[in-house]
Amino acid sequence: MDVTLLRHATLLVELDGVRFLVDPMLSDAGANPPVENTPNQRRNPLVDLPDAVTDGDSALAHDAVLVTHRHTDHWDAWADAVDPSTPVFCNPADAEHFEADGLTDVRPVDGGETFEGVTLHRTPARHGHGDLAEAMAPVCGFVLDGTESLYIAGDTVWYDAVPETIDDHDPDAVVLNAGAAQFLEGEPITMTAEGVANVRDHVSDGTDVLAVHMDAINHCLLSRDDLREAVDDVAIPDDGETVTL
């Protein structure tokens, strides 16, 4: 199983020969306005995609697309790489919106869906706390289950459903959206360094933990360097880096 971080939460996961493009945000740097009501008012994305992607390399070649939710930093400029007939797996609550985008093979994941030998399970996520989490919904994560298994937690904070998902599926690896995304008011809405450490401490021995979702969007205030200083035994890939699990 290979996991390549393209940028932010955009991943290419290769499992049992099947390539899943996850949460494609393919905009050029500065194409979008900053997330409002945040301390750092820079235009998004903060950085461009790696050269291997923009130079027309096969880095974006995929068999299916997986989208945890439709916020702009997870689903933007997708038409640059996603053919409308590509299978797109998503939260049932988002299905009609993808169809309105012109996609013709939308596959909402309710229980478990199987694609070319890999089973996809939708998992719960909480994008913040209290009323803010309700306003940021719907969001979800996914477990990809083949010869090995991968838990993509999506935009979530550490709460009871995260360790429950780990216990239920016992994944070989976990990808966390860190960055401690923050508004001027309220608590962070994605994983903090403490949340990442909680996951690392909860998983089984030998389970890999990867942290992404940093250094690309203006309200993600926890940087890779900050996280490296705060936690051990967590892979923190750079943009364009492939982690073989």
TrEMBL record:
This is Metallo-beta-lactamase domain-containing protein. Pfam families: Lactamase_B_2. The lineage of its organism: Archaea, Methanobacteriati, Methanobacteriota, Stenosarchaea group, Halobacteria. InterPro entries: Metallo-B-lactamas, RibonucZ/Hydroxyglut_hydro, UPF0173_UPF0282_UlaG_hydrolase. SUPFAM superfamilies: Metallo-hydrolase/oxidoreductase (SSF56281). Gene3D superfamilies: Ribonuclease Z/Hydroxyacylglutathione hydrolase-like. Keywords: Hydrolase. One of its GO terms (molecular function) is hydrolase activity. Residues 7-196 form the Metallo-beta-lactamase domain. The keyword Hydrolase applies. SMART domains: Lactamase_B.
